[in-house]
Write a sequence for this structure.
């Protein structure tokens, strides 16, 4: 399926006091009136705490910020960091106060957490989430949806290998893509509001069909993580088997893999299982291409080897040009 690309402005601003938020079109006036009265962020980890930090810094996202977490340690840390106006333990209690609830929990927890939040939400409010996979998360949340609460699935394409409330930072989404995968029934006003939220976080926005999203992310994000976890495991096994110093001399190439491989196990377990089909399809493609490279090396096919390396270099160059490197 091809993506529905929409870059048109949907922000209807009052035009009163205006400022330009970083990442937004400089020509586009942005009201400094908070977008929401109360924004509830469930799961103030890397992504959730980055949204809170950004929201707190600019105060153009919401007048009141509420963080919700099941763990007393995380709640205490969020209080200490001072990145929310209120910190709560009960999802439903917090959701009842919100005009927007943003779920920032691992994709496997989206359904159960939405089931707690949705019955408590106010008519006319918005449920959004940031899951790295879209089809499975939409399927998990759909049974609990209500006609009077809008649901806007989103995926900010920004992250680091760190997790938890200390890992977040206000500029995480700056100039990064945020993919919105609205459903047929998603009200345009709710979609516009979530779009504005991410614009005010500094993101670039695209709309995409959820299944297309999952295929794109399988190749640009999920497969690279799978390769990183695997290559680190292989190197570790080799070091054990040969009692050699494989890992002592982990120079630049391997070191880059280890950075990706340091990512959170729960998050990535959930992503791999949630995007199983698209990921396995991309892995099969990759293995065919890796076999072709192996064949070229075996038979000394210099032209093939050089062509592949040049393609890699060209991709890196275009990422740098697009400020995505
Ligand atoms: P994170 O730093 O590990 O934060 C996850 C948060 O969810 C934590 O506050 C955690 O609370 C909470 N949580 C975990 N399991 C839960 C459960 N069963 N019920 C309720 N809360 C639960 O993870 P993250 O990197 O921010 O990822 C959050 C979401 O963003 C995921 O859906 C991920 O796919 C998506 N995402 C991640 C990235 C990335 O690169 N990291 C990028 C884009 C989108 P405790 O600490 O108390 O367990």
């Amino acid at each position: 399926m091809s993506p529905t690309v929409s870059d048109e402005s949907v922000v209807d601003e009052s035009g009163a006091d205006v400022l330009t938020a970083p990442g937004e079109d400089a020509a586009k006036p942005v009201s400094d009136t908070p977008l929401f009265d109360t924004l509830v962020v469930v799961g103030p980890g890397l992504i959730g705490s980055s949204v809170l930090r950004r929201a707190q810094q600019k105060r153009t996202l919401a007048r009141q910020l509420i963080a919700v977490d099941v763990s007393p340690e995380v709640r205490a840390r969020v209080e200490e960091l001072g990145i929310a106006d209120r910190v709560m333990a009960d999802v439903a209690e917090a959701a009842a106060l919100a005009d927007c609830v943003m779920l920032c929990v691992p994709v496997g927890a989206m359904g159960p957490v939405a089931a707690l939040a949705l019955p408590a939400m106010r008519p006319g409010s918005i449920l959004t989430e940031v899951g790295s996979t879209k089809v499975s998360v939409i399927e998990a949340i759909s049974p609990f949806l209500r006609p009077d609460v809008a649901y806007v699935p989103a995926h900010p394409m920004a992250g680091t290998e760190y997790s938890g409330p200390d890992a977040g930072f206000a500029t995480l989404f700056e100039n990064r893509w945020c993919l919105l995968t609205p459903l047929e029934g998603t009200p345009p006003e709710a979609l516009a509001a979530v779009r504005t939220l991410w614009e005010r976080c500094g993101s670039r926005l695209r709309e995409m069909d959820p299944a297309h999203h999952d295929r794109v992310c399988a190749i640009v994000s999920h497969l690279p993580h799978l390769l990183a976890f695997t290559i680190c495991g292989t190197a570790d096994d080799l070091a054990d088997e040969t009692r050699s110093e494989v890992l002592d001399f982990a120079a630049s190439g391997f070191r880059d893999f280890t950075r990706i491989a340091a990512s959170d196990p729960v998050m990535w377990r959930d992503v791999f299982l949630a995007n199983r089909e698209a990921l396995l399809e991309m892995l099969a493609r990759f293995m065919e291409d890796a076999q072709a490279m192996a064949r070229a090396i075996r038979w000394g096919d210099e032209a093939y080897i050089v062509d592949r390396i040049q393609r890699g270099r060209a991709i890196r160059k275009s990422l740098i040009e697009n400020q995505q490197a």
The chain has two domains: 18-208, 212-321. The longest strand covers residues 36-42. Confidence is low (pLDDT under 50) at residues 1-27.
